[in-house]
């Protein structure tokens, strides 16, 4: 028992693709492109999971640039000056505490110089 919803249209017969003859003596105009980049070029890691030299160099350069930029920005601001002052105070307090601990243990402080 078939209903009208089950009826399928007749399948058309596939046709062969048309082939065109290309003259052999006509040069083909095409743009030369760079080869597809490898996984190492894209991710910075080889297939074995080892970072490439370019990836390592770029990471170091990026970190250096970030550190230099942060240093330049922090020296010119009040917040940077406050941070430097607080760091110096902590260093001074840490040195005093270390001297106190050394004195309590009976050891002599290292020579300053």
From TrEMBL:
Provide ranges: composition bias, Basic and acidic residues: 82-103
Q: Where is the composition biased (Low complexity)?
A: 7-24
Give the start-end ranges of region Disordered. 1-24, 74-113
Protein's name according to its UniProt entry: 35 kDa protein
* Organism, scientific name: Tsukamurella paurometabola (strain ATCC 8368 / DSM 20162 / CCUG 35730 / CIP 100753 / JCM 10117 / KCTC 9821 / NBRC 16120 / NCIMB 702349 / NCTC 13040)
Q: What is the lineage of its organism?
A: Bacteria, Bacillati, Actinomycetota, Actinomycetes, Mycobacteriales
């Amino acid at each position: 028992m078939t209903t009208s919803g089950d009826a399928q249209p007749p399948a058309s017969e596939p046709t062969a693709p048309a082939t065109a003859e290309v003259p052999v003596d006509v040069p083909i105009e095409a743009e030369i492109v760079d080869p597809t980049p490898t996984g190492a070029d894209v991710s910075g890691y080889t297939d074995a999971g080892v970072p490439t030299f370019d990836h390592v160099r770029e990471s170091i350069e990026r970190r250096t640039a970030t550190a230099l930029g942060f240093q330049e920005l922090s020296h010119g601001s009040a917040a940077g000056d406050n941070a430097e002052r607080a760091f110096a105070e902590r260093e001074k307090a840490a040195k005093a505490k270390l001297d106190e601990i050394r004195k309590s243990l009976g050891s002599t402080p290292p020579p300053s110089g």
